[in-house]
Amino acid sequence: MGNRGAASGRSRVGKTSQHARESKVSQLRIPPTRALRDWSVSWRLIAVIVLALVMGLVFGGNMYGVTFNGGDAYAPYIFIGYGAVFRLATNGALTRLASFHGTNGASPNGLMAGANGGFYGTTQGGGTYGSGTIFRLDNTPLSQPVIQSVEQMSGTLFITWTAVAGQSYQVQYSTNLTQGAWNNLGSAIPATNGIATTSDTIGPDARRFYRVALLP
Asked: Cβ distance 22 to 29 under 8 Å?
């Protein structure tokens, strides 16, 4: 393998983000998603956002709230959706953490932060009998990627690291750690389980150092 390997024997992570992991209370199951779908700007959407901010809360420096409509089920001019849970970061980044689909609830009333760091709330409709649900949304940091191995086989390096299913990672390399310049190795890699792997063809560089960044 020569001088190639993970920088300092471990992965380096560029940017961290929070990860909302769904759990079940009573009959609720909220599948998490990573980003807001494009919503048509209209007076209804503006009203929904204003309502969400009033019903939101601040936790860990970020603003969390719910939208009465919208979410995965939203379709412009067809269906206004069942609602969603969102996070608004201090830099203005808006992320949808979960969506309601009717069976797991519809039209959330708001959020309340628990002592365990999770968020709790109720919905006005949806559920088995259409009368609403009680939900919990865990708010825990994502595990950072750790490079497990860098192996050489027939002129190719295989880089393996720990991952979280559903998250995307960017592998980067540098030929000189003192210069601070890192280059992307290919495109972002979505993880499907707890381990992710990519490869790099050995070229003319005398050495390469690798790191893995968790993408927001």
From this structure: yes
Q: How far, in Å, are 3, 159, 173, 202 from residue 153 at the CA level? A: 15, 11, 19, 10
Identify the structural domains of the chain with CATH numbers, from first to last: 5-16+143-214 (2.60.40), 18-140 (no CATH)
Rounded to whole angstroms, the Cα distance separating 105 from 136 reads 12
Tokens of 128: 């088995």
Which sign, positive or negative, has the C-alpha torsion 43, 44, 49, 52?
A: positive
Q: What percent of the chain has pLDDT over 90?
A: 28
* Cα–Cα distance list, 66 to 9, 39, 58, 110, 170 (Å): 42, 15, 12, 6, 31
Judge contact between 137 and 117, C-beta under 8 A: no
pLDDT of res. 88: 82
Helices assigned H by DSSP within the chain: 43-54
Q: Which residue has the tokens 């969603």?
A: 84
What is the per-residue pLDDT across 25-49, written as a single tens digit (0 to 9) for each?
434 444 443 333 443 344 444 444 4
CB-facing half-sphere around the CA of 71: CA atoms within 13 A: 26
- The strand ranges marked E within 45-118 are 57-59, 62-67, 84-88, 94-99, 106-108, 112-113
In angstroms, the CA 206 to CA 190 distance is 29
Residues with Cβ within 8 Å of residue 149, at least 6 apart in sequence: 158, 159, 160
Residues in the chain, pLDDT under 70? 1-60, 140-142
